[in-house]
Amino acid sequence: MQENLLTQISLAEINDQIKELETLDRQSITIDELKLKISRLMKGHTVRLREIVAKKIFRARKTPQNIVFNRVNELWYPPTNLITKYGRCNNINSTIFYCSDSEPTAILELRPEIGFYLTILKCHLKDSNSIPHVQELGLPEFTAKFNPQLGGTVLENTALGKAYWQNQDDEVKNLAIRSFLVKEFIQNVLPGNEDQYKISVAISEILMNLMVFVTLALQLNIEEQI
């Protein structure tokens, strides 16, 4: 069996790289600089894809009280020129189709307050036999808080994961990298502090360039608007 790339680096070196990333000045560093550093950290890191069980996905948008959204393009990708701040996955002037596999999750992502108006876009697969897969980054950690049966087990704790790594050290290294990626990816960033998203943006671009993320929007068709 071919040697895992993680075997070639020590846990101490991995922790040093993570510490460096955590203490960087996020205002001054560029996304490209971060991608170089994170790619080095992720060398040999193993992930898995999950099937999207839901047949529909949802996207929500806050709606002014005096406006009714009644066209798809008002709820679809925003124009790139309007993307002036970093998001969890999107770079500046870069559009990402954020969506959820349930309507309540799409609503909660917006953190609405009482009195807010929302418009929900519901989409379904163009081909029901072509099930999309997504990177599971953060999914087990998040769902385990509420229902471990909904993907609440990280790869390192599964029989498949344990069979993959040749030794426990590599498993521990993989989990250390994963924990850092997840922490950055699901962090809560307040308005005005969008530079804190730079690492999760870099992570997302790395994964999408590797075609680990599946672009769901290319496989979706509009079903209806609510």
Report on the structure:
With 226 residues, the chain is an alpha+beta fold. It has one domain (5-225). 32% of the residues lie in helices and 12% in strands. The protein has seven helices and five strands; from the N terminus they run ααββαββααααβ. The strands form two sheets. A three-stranded antiparallel sheet has the order 2-3-5. The chain has a two-stranded antiparallel sheet with strand order 1-4. Helix 1 runs parallel beside helix 6.
Listing every helix as H and every strand as E from the N terminus to the C terminus, the arrangement reads: HHEEHEEHHHHE
Lateral strand order in the biggest sheet: 2-3-5
Q: For the residues shown, what is the average pLDDT? A: 82
| Number of helices in the DSSP assignment | 7
The dominant shape is globular
Strand content: 5-15%
Topology:
Blueprint: H1 11-22, H2 31-42, E1 49-51, E2 56-62, H3 103-109, E3 118-125, E4 133-135, H4 139-143, H5 159-164, H6 168-185, H7 198-209, E5 220-225
Antiparallel strand pairs: 1-4, 2-3, 3-5
Helix pairs in contact: 1-2, 1-6, 2-7
How would you sum up this structure in a few lines?
The chain has about 230 residues and is α+β, with helices and mostly antiparallel strands.
List key phrases describing it.
single chain, 226 residues, alpha+beta, three-stranded antiparallel beta sheet, two-stranded antiparallel ribbon, 7 helices, disordered C terminus
